[in-house]
Task: structure prediction
Amino acid sequence: MSEQQFDVIVVGAGPSGNAAAYTMAKGGLSVLQIERGEYSGSKNVQGAILYADALEQIIPDFRDDAPLERHVIEQRMWTMDDKSHTGMHYRSDDFNEERPNRYTILRAQFDKWFSAKVREAGATLLCETTVTELVKDFHGKVIGVRTDRSGNPIMANVVILAEGVNGLVGQRSGLRDEVAPDSVALAVKEMHFLPREVIEARFNLTGNEGVVIEAMGTITKGMTGTGFLYTNEESISVGIGCIVSDFAASEVTPYGLLEAFKNHPSIKPLLVGSECKEYAAHLIPEGGYKAIPQLCGEGWIVVGDAGQFVNAVHREGSNLAMTTGRVAAETVIALTRKREPMSAANLAEYVRRLEESFVMKDLKKYKGIPALLHNNKLNFFGLYPKLISQAMQTWFRVDGVDKKSKEKEIFKAFREARTIWGMIGDAFRVVRAWR
Ligand SMILES: Cc1cc2nc3c(=O)[nH]c(=O)nc-3n(C[C@H](O)[C@H](O)[C@H](O)COP(=O)(O)OP(=O)(O)OC[C@H]3O[C@@H](n4cnc5c(N)ncnc54)[C@H](O)[C@@H]3O)c2cc1C
Result:
């Protein structure tokens, strides 16, 4: 393939790259998508939650044939100490709607399905090919890519970098800095297989209903992070992730952390009898709004995890990936139709549109959260979960102690552990970061 010219090259075939490539191919552009894996999804073997809204805007009838596992009807949020959990659960029959809002999926299958749609739409997909660098003209404008297949460049009017969290192509080409270790989490995850009727009985589900558990507390051993468990059709995805710089400063290994989480008395019974068939480790960008790199320039745009588009508070990533991919694609289509150059000034329309979308609004809203959690991790991931568990234990244990005395005991425990001013300060910091 020498000196071949495409309207656009998309680097990566994850959700952001697929959303971009699909939208542009449907829009009539000549699209080359390059993926280093054997197929789209081969590097993403984990289970995950799919947020329907983002995909619906790209493929409205996706429910007809997408490989969906269960639609989520119940969300459990747990604060955990070593022996217990305190939970807030929300379950509603409203989620048993005709067009459910959230599904559990297996990424390897889902990405493969999405990729088939991309090819049906007319894009060319080149797998087992790694983009090694961007090709620039004398003025520094990106005009194509080089791959590990041959020395010949492949040319395009614009390159969309959908290469995931590491953003190595962008880094090597001097478009961005290395991802900081305190802005990225390492998540480890396993798939545990069980018969579907066992999952349904264990989680009080019928048919394709599903449950999600998100957990925080002493399970991360004082590091900033969370654990999670999702029910799939015939498997359970269970995992835990913490900020990389916290792992580096600790003796705890990611695998050791996952083993401890799986053996927690609140998690173990949910997995009992299952067969673990898959293990995966992956990075998640969690630096939020302040970690977003430059998003476009002369002849290039960044989408998805490569742009740090993950809302760690709500555990949303793939929907931001698909939305940024779609918006980038629509920007490129509009410029192509108007025969406008793919200049930094013109491509900045992508950023302007993102600023008006939930993507930037949500990330901006939580821009103080990563630093808040990182700087107060021992309190938020250790002290408070322990105090909450202790308070619940005191409150619910019936032991002849009157309720007024129990209230005093609970308050005293909080006051002695954190002081009144410490708690007021924490509450103030949370409110300020949450706005
Ligand atoms: C354990 C875990 C659980 C998660 N759970 C959820 C969840 O439940 N819900 C949710 O919404 N999000 C979740 N996320 C986040 C979500 O997976 C990401 O936000 C999403 O995958 C980002 O999509 P992307 O296309 O930008 O990047 P990726 O999915 O990482 O895709 C990038 C692709 O680019 C390819 N690539 C990289 N470099 C090159 C190169 N040089 N040349 C060619 N190809 C290249 C890679 O092989 C890969 O296929 C989770 C992430 C992890 C790690």
Notes: The radius of gyration is 23 Å.
